[in-house]
Amino acid sequence: MRLLEVLILFSSLSFLAYGIAYFTNPKMKSEFVRFGLSKFGTLTAILEIVGALGLLIGLLYDSILLLSSGGLALLMFLGVIVRIKIKDGVKASSPALFYFGLNLYIFIETLKIF
């Protein structure tokens, strides 16, 4: 298995877990309240799940991989912006930054295929 495939699997499983956790763990919902984005929690969780499934399907279809990784990178970029806006520290912001970078890398590597 190539490195890119491992990273895709890692990212997709992570986003599946985060998306599902929103619906099963009250702490995840309370974070969106803390962010001042309670109206967007469900949408964000659904986008995470759809993006994760898109990454998996993207292992077979490059165009789906490009859309999914780009969408998740954008979602995490916005997550970093929110963390900065609410003045979260580096430790609290690092997961969003990490997943932004990871999905941006997947996106760029997939662009090279086209």
Q: What is the tally of helical segments? A: 5
Average pLDDT score: 96
Helical content band? over 70%
Compute the CA-based radius of gyration: 14 Å
What kind of assembly state do the chains in view correspond to? single chain
Give me the strand/helix succession. HHHHH
Transmembrane segments: 6-24, 36-58, 64-84, 96-113
Main location: membrane
Membrane topology: Multi-pass membrane protein
Subcellular location: Membrane
Structure description:
This protein is an all-alpha fold and 114 residues long. It has one domain (3-111). It is 84% helix and 0% strand. The chain is built from 5 helices and no strands. It has helices at 3-24, 26-35, 41-58, 62-85, 90-111. Helix 3 (41-58) runs antiparallel to helix 4 (62-85). The radius of gyration is 14 Å and the shape is globular. The two termini are 21 Å apart. It is a multi-pass membrane protein. Its main location: membrane. This is DoxX-like family protein. The chain crosses the membrane at residues 6-24, 36-58, 64-84, 96-113.
